[in-house]
Specification:
The complex is a heterodimer of chains A (514) and B (484). Chain A is mainly α and 514 residues long. Chain A has a domain at 312-481. Chain A has helices spanning 5-21, 25-49, 77-96, 105-124, 128-137, 139-149, 154-183, 188-193, 198-215, 224-231, 234-259, 261-266, 268-287, 292-311, 316-347, 358-361, 363-377, 383-398, 400-425, 432-435, 442-460, 463-480; strands at 58-63, 71-75. Chain A has a two-stranded antiparallel sheet. In chain A, α5 (128-137) packs antiparallel against α7 (154-183). The longest helix of chain A has 32 residues, at 316-347. Chain A is globular and about 90 Å long. The model of chain A has no long low-confidence stretch (mean pLDDT 88). Chain B has one domain (3-483). Chain B has a two-stranded antiparallel sheet with strand order 1-2. The chains are: A mainly alpha (514), B mainly alpha (484).
Chain lengths: 514, 484
């Protein structure tokens, strides 16, 4: 029995969450920060000890505590990376809420720590129903975070978030019950190898799709996202964009693709169609937003559409690219929300027109904001470039048309992000109060600098992040190989001409015969 | 079968009856100040019955008493334990409520005891006549309990409504029973089953439908649910807590035994009725609750909604389904009692109840512990994991999927999202809104203990109970299928 590090990673924030409920504001903040930093340290330990190229499932724990399902944890490279993303963003979220949250601090910190437990649980669960419990349970703290500490329209946003995502996932539960009944096990690794009957796969795939498409979110079920993002407090948006949206992609990569490969192949056209609409439509919508958070929220939908096309390309580049976009987007959109939070804390408005010329009075802030803007556009050298390039390279093999549309989306992405940056950071200082805002303080440095470092690291040397996932993605690709689509841009080997091009037919007889 | 053995097997009912009679005399010859002592005595008697009942699980399983009128098996022991636990909890939290209003009398505890006797007979009856006797004993005490606050118009109205509609339902059941008897020539469950297996005519089908319709009334399943909101709202809150828990358990258990044993061979005949009632209850219970402002009325619709989920387990008509029903019932009892105890604790210094959403607005700042308990209870009722209420839904839907009723399961679970709306509204009002009503007064320790226990059970820790609960419920449902 090795050291149960995953259980410890669940236990630390859980205990801290319970403690925070009973503490006053100051100590709750300290406890939350300490617990999340401790979990980050555990996460780094996890990464160091993860054996690249070793067993597919590592750090496996199993205890038969319950009837009908078991407490089974274990991670592969994909889960490892997403757990790292969660534990990395968590202390930053706590820091982001340090001053801006003043009421019911203990409960707030408890909700965030609980979120951390559930996110790690989702990625580490190796039992189907344990996964579902963690997956669904996230609704409760997020509902409270949006509803209690959110903006003016928080009640509508929290209802919409809760009911939308609940409706999406209940059908998945029925599908899970059917699968367990059919396969006779709740073990996710076993189910990933199980061949479900092809006609049943269609329904199971659709049920899972209902859940993951809402979480992702894919057009047209994305409408909860802008509301939830805008109304949530800054740290809530960071967690939503950074990690919760990745649950959908993780669900596709862990469940839909390996468990229902045939249905995935049959319905890939649906995913492509929705993703193409999403990329273009949400990018155009983002272009006209007046509210910074809403703009970034719509840009998330567009980025997630790149993830889905990458996943359904069924080849290594597409899958790796999708994972890299998820990780990169987790960092970048989180950072962009933090950037919005920094100036929101000063001026208490998210309206783009209220700012302007911030690079004059907040040069350091403008630098960070520029870096993350460029990363969001996918500039080479930043994290998103790697992911988007790989994902598009993967999909290019399958459909040049989809690639064309999605790449157009990236151009539009550059348009709306640069337009945002111009209006906020460049130009005249039109508003006197915005012009008086002080530059970043030490706490804000501590929030943004680590993300900036990670974004550059991921852009310059993505191998660190790709290496742990490589074997798992290869396994997945092997599983999908039988249903992988034809490459429409693949080189076709023709029948070679018999002779060289300048050959003159000789058998027509000798010259001048007639 | 000797009389001694019969008396031994029915020891819990006999003991409770004697306790009830003695306490009745005691209330008649003492002043009203003795009410508290009588309640304590009644609680003790129920505890005794509970322990005796559990001890039967070791030796008397599967034995029939009084020549096949009552059956003591794992199923009846399970249901009876739940009934006794729920009755005890309601008795513990009742005195304070009635004292506030100057209505506290010893008769309350006595009526609860007789009710418990009736419910005990209901769940172990294996003869149509015994069933009816148990049902009426329980119902008649319920009518009186509903109008216990007799100077209160709403309470009297509740009692009257409950009496008239309950009487109608009893009549329907009796009519069904007479048809069943007429076509099978016997009132014993096993006899009815044997007769129906041999020949199931249209007339007998009518009998089955009438009996099930009457029982649907008792469990408050749609379309026989109309009395529930009025009675639940009008009756004194401890009585409502009782109605939503113990008699519901007894009625569901009786319905399950009836469906599985005498009508067990005709599952196709009643399955579609149960499926309809289940889906209709889920939808009507969810939609009806949305517009409610009164918390008791809301919980009444919530109980209709929950009955729908319980019936999904029954609709599966398999041992797993019935085991799911029992697991759901157990969790439901704790959720319901917890919610109503929390409502009882919502009172001002003067003893007035905080009865509407407006009154509990911003509760999380004025009384955080209570608000967090209610939050857990509401998410549990909505079936959101990791709270234990999810497990109840999980087992019934699992049974439905195993019985290949995927459409039923899918529609049922999708409709549960409608119900989630008003449960999260509860949370919204308590946590998101600003306080505007009066602050709740301090609640007595007894209330906190009951609430704390309920919340502990429905907390994620409850999942540790699943292996034990599952095996006990499986044994109970097997008892029905072996008997058949």
């Amino acid at each position: 029995m090795e050291f149960p590090i995953l259980s410890l990673m669940l236990a630390v924030p859980l205990v801290a969450a319970i403690a925070c409920l009973f503490l006053n504001a100051g100590s709750a903040r300290m406890v939350a920060l300490f617990a999340t930093l401790f979990n980050l340290a555990l996460g780094i330990l996890l990464w160091i000890n993860y054996e690249i190229g070793g067993a597919q499932w590592q750090f496996v724990e199993r205890a038969e505590l319950f009837a009908g399902f078991s407490y089974a944890l274990g991670i592969d490279g994909i889960a490892l990376m997403l757990i790292m993303l969660s534990v990395f963003l968590m202390p930053i979220c706590i820091l982001a809420s340090w001053d801006s949250i003043t009421k019911r601090v203990g409960e707030y910190m408890a909700a965030f720590l609980l979120m951390e437990v559930l996110m790690i649980g989702v990625f580490a669960a190796q039992d189907l129903f344990l996964f579902y419990i963690f997956f669904e349970a996230g609704l409760i703290p997020m509902y409270l975070i949006i509803g209690v500490w959110g903006g003016d329209n928080r009640i509508y946003a929290s209802y919409k978030f809760f009911l939308y995502t609940l409706l999406g996932s209940v059908l998945m539960l029925i599908a899970m019950l059917w699968m367990v009944n059919e396969a006779g096990t709740t073990d996710i690794p076993t189910l990933m190898q199980y061949d479900f009957p092809v006609d049943a796969q269609l329904w199971l795939w659709l049920a899972f799709f209902a859940s993951f498409a809402v979480k992702m979110p894919m057009w047209p079920v994305h409408t909860w996202l802008p509301d939830a993002h805008v109304q949530a407090p800054t740290a809530g948006s960071v967690i939503l964009a950074g990690v919760l949206l990745k649950l959908g992609g993780y669900g596709f990569i862990r469940f839909s693709l390996p468990m229902f490969p045939d249905a995935s192949a049959d319905l890939a056209w649906l995913v492509f169609a929705l993703s193409m609409v999403a990329v273009i439509y949400t990018s155009l919508v983002a272009l006209v937003q007046e509210d910074m958070k809403k703009l970034i929220a719509y840009s998330s939908v567009a980025h997630m559409a790149i993830v889905t096309v990458g996943l359904f390309a069924f080849n290594v580049q597409g899958l790796e690219g999708a994972m890299m976009v998820m990780l990169g987007h987790g960092l970048v959109s989180g950072a962009l929300f933090l950037c919005v939070g920094v100036i929101y804390d000063r001026l208490h408005t998210r309206e783009i027109a209220r700012y302007g010329g911030l690079s004059i009075n907040m040069p350091k802030y403008a630098l960070f904001f520029l870096l993350f803007t460029m990363a969001s556009i996918g500039l080479p050298g930043t994290s998103n470039f790697v992911g988007e390039f790989l994902a598009l390279a993967g999909i290019y093999k399958v459909s040049t048309f989809v690639t064309l549309v999605c790449t157009t989306g990236i151009i539009l992405g550059a348009a709306y992000m640069l337009y945002l940056y111009r209006r906020v950071a460049f130009g005249e200082q039109v508003n006197a109060d915005a012009a008086r805002m002080p530059d970043l303080n030490a706490r804000e440095w501590a929030m943004l600098a680590p993300i900036a470092a990670a974004v550059l690291w991921m852009g310059v040397y993505p191998e660190s992040f790709l290496a742990p996932m490589r074997q798992d993605i290869a396994t997945l690709e092997a599983r999908l190989a039988s249903v992988a689509p034809e490459y429409d841009s693949a080189l076709t080997v023709g029948t070679p001409d018999e002779h060289a091009a300048n050959y003159i037919a000789a058998e027509h007889g000798s010259e001048g015969e007639h | 079968m000797s009389y001694a053995n019969s008396l031994y097997l029915t020891g819990a009912e006999i003991g409770l009856s004697i306790a009830g009679l003695v306490l009745l005399l005691a209330t008649a010859w003492t002043t009203r100040s003795s009410a508290r002592a009588i309640t304590i005595a009644a609680v003790t008697a129920l505890f005794g019955a509970l322990i005796f009942n559990l001890s039967l699980a070791n030796d008397g399983v599967g034995a029939a008493a009084f020549g096949g009128l009552l059956e003591v098996d794992a199923f009846s022991i399970f249901a009876k334990s739940l009934v006794y636990i729920a009755t005890i909890a309601c008795l513990i939290v009742a005195p304070r409520y009635f004292e506030d209003r100057g209505q506290f009398r010893g008769e309350f505890a006595v009526l609860m005891l007789f009710n418990a006797v009736g419910m005990g007979i209901m769940v172990s009856a294996v003869d149509l006549m015994t069933l009816y006797i148990g049902l009426e004993l329980s119902s008649l005490s319920s009518y009186v309990l509903a109008s216990f606050a007799r100077r209160d118009d709403k309470s009297s109205e509740a009692g009257l409504k409950y009496f008239i509609l309950g009487g109608l339902a009893s009549g329907i059941i009796l009519y069904g029973v007479s048809l069943v008897y007429g076509f099978s020539g016997t009132t014993s469950y096993d006899g009815v089953r044997a007769a129906f297996d041999a020949d199931f005519s249209t007339g007998a089908l009518f009998g089955v439908v009438f009996v099930l319709a009457g029982l649907a009334f008792k469990v408050a399943a749609v379309p026989f649910h109309m009395w529930t909101p009025d009675v639940y709202e009008g009756a004194p809150t401890p009585v409502t807590a009782f109605f939503a828990s113990a008699p519901k358990v007894a009625a569901v258990a009786m319905l399950v035994r009836m469906a599985a044993v005498p009508f067990g061979g005709q599952a196709e005949a009643w399955q579609q009725i149960v499926i309809f009632a289940a889906l209709a209850s889920i939808v009507v219970g969810a939609l009806g609750a949305i517009g409610q402002q009164n918390l008791k009325r809301l919980l009444a619709y919530s109980s209709i909604n929950n009955v729908g989920f319980i019936l999904i387990g029954l609709a599966a008509a398999t041992p797993a389904g019935i085991s799911g029903v029992l697991i759901y019932l157990s969790i439901y009892v704790f959720m319901t009692i917890g919610s109503f105890v929390a409502l009882l604790m919502l009172r001002t210094e003067k003893g007035e109840a905080l009865a509407t959403f407006d009154d509990i607005s911003g509760l999380s700042t004025s009384s955080p512990a209570l608000a967090w308990c209610l939050l857990a209870l509401m998410f549990s009722l909505a079936g959101i994991p990791p709270l234990f209420g999810f497990w109840g839904k999980f087992v019934v839907f699992q049974a439905a999927v195993r019985a290949d009723m995927i459409a039923l399961a899918a529609i049922g679970i999708a409709a549960s999202v409608i119900g989630a709306f008003y449960y999260i509204k509860f949370v919204k009002v308590m946590f998101f809104d600003e306080p505007k009503g009066a602050e709740p007064a301090k609640a007595p320790v007894s209330h906190w203990v009951v609430l704390g226990l309920c919340v502990l059970v429905i907390s994620p820790l409850g999942y540790l109970l699943t292996p034990w609960l599952g095996s006990v419920a499986d044994a109970a449902s097997q008892a029905l299928f072996f008997a058949a």
